[in-house]
Amino acid sequence: MPRPAPTRKRKRKVVRKKVCRLCENRVVAIDFKDVELLRRYQTEKGKILPRRITGNCAKHQKMLSARIKRARNLSLVL
Question: What is the pLDDT of residue 78?
C-alpha cells in the first residue's frame, strides 16, 4: 500500500506593484547627458535593464532606452 505524499504549506510572497519613478517625479524628458540617471537603469556591463525589473512605464522605458543608446554612441556611458 503506497504512502500518502506529505503536504507542505508554501509561504506566499507579497509582491508590491512596481511604480515608475519617472512618472512619480513627473519627468517629461530625459536628457542623454544625465549620466547618473542613465547608469541607474543599466547593469555593470552596460545592458539596459528591462521594465519588469525597473518598474518603468512603457513611455519612459522607450525614452530611457533611446537616451542610453545615444549616450553610448557619444561614449558618455558604457
Answer: 83
